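Notes, p. 3: input format for complexes.
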Amino acid sequence: MNFDCKPLANYSLEDRNTLGFDVVAEWALPITQAEQIPPAIRWAKNAGLSHRVLGGGSNVVLPAQLPGLTLLMDIDFIEVLENRDSNTRLRVGAGVNWHALVGWTLDQNYRGLENLALIPGTVGAAPIQNIGAYGVEVKEYIDLVEAYDCQTNQWVSLSKKDCRFAYRHSVFKDEPNRFVITAVIFDLPKEWQPRVSYSDLTNYFTNRAIETIAAQEIFDAVCAIRAQKLPDPKVIGNVGSFFQNPVISNQQLQFLKEQFPQIVSYPESATHSKLAAGWLIDQCGFKGMQLGNVGVHNKQALVLTHRGGGNAGELLGLAEQIQKKVKETFGVDLIPEPIFFN
Ligand SMILES: Cc1cc2nc3c(=O)[nH]c(=O)nc-3n(C[C@H](O)[C@H](O)[C@H](O)COP(=O)(O)OP(=O)(O)OC[C@H]3O[C@@H](n4cnc5c(N)ncnc54)[C@H](O)[C@@H]3O)c2cc1C
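Output follows (342 residues plus flavin-adenine dinucleotide):
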């Protein structure tokens, strides 16, 4: 089949970024089949335009005018490759909604992804920052990532090792716009243990005196806890956590503990610890602060919000104020989690 490339000019992305900024893409192309990608990349190259990939827009900060070609990832399928006594392997299209996939796996009694319930966005974006929540990272369940390599113009299948996954990081962040992910292959072992050591989950189950915990109960618990803590992007524009939790040496942590005995930290490795970025921001007095059309959420200081009429410049101005104050107070650098397009 011949795939024509007919991008749409001046395409509004207002409904495709969870901050709800008024954004217009110079050119946009909905991608429903992987085969559309090579001609689309050729089209952009021949026109001298850059290209970008957009899933659900829940981890990006977009400018009012987005130049070049934006590929809108809508590839939608779920395929069971193998269902053995030991494990289940699934191949899932990049455009499938992440939370819908988690719900679907539990309906089939495939367990493992339940701690990652209610994370907005698409399956194709999940490997980009190695999404994680409530003590689980998606890398644990990824077998292969299928992608088009725009540098070599070849289809590639990247192993877990090739993806170089780390905390909120992967090869896809190191080499932005090189790979267009078309599908992810998941491997879900049948052997399963509930993972509820994260304090919110431990408290949830202790308070309800549930002893034998099922995967569906973890899914329900995660959804309930998240709904309480995080603003719904359909109501208040946001991209979830705006900053990563800083990883510092245990030596630096010891030093900080002497000055700030209440500092919130979690062990990261034998030598390093993770600080709760939300706590640092809260201590600097930003929680609930409003600056023009943007602000800091009043329940979770890690979440920056947009209530309409604002833009990327305003949000980045607020982010910079926060970074500066946290650095002055604690000597710690806050690294933004979302990707800034320009
Ligand atoms: C309320 C809220 C809560 C959140 N909670 C969490 C959380 O608990 N844990 C967590 O890790 N994240 C969280 N996030 C962030 C976000 O949901 C995830 O990063 C998600 O994976 C982004 O998916 P997306 O489809 O919206 O990606 P987009 O925002 O569209 O894109 C993000 C990046 O991925 C790239 N990309 C997207 N799709 C592809 C593709 N198919 N091929 C190549 N590149 C691609 C884009 O170019 C961009 O660089 C939260 C966000 C919100 C709004």
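The CA atoms of residues 171 and 254 lie 32 Å apart.
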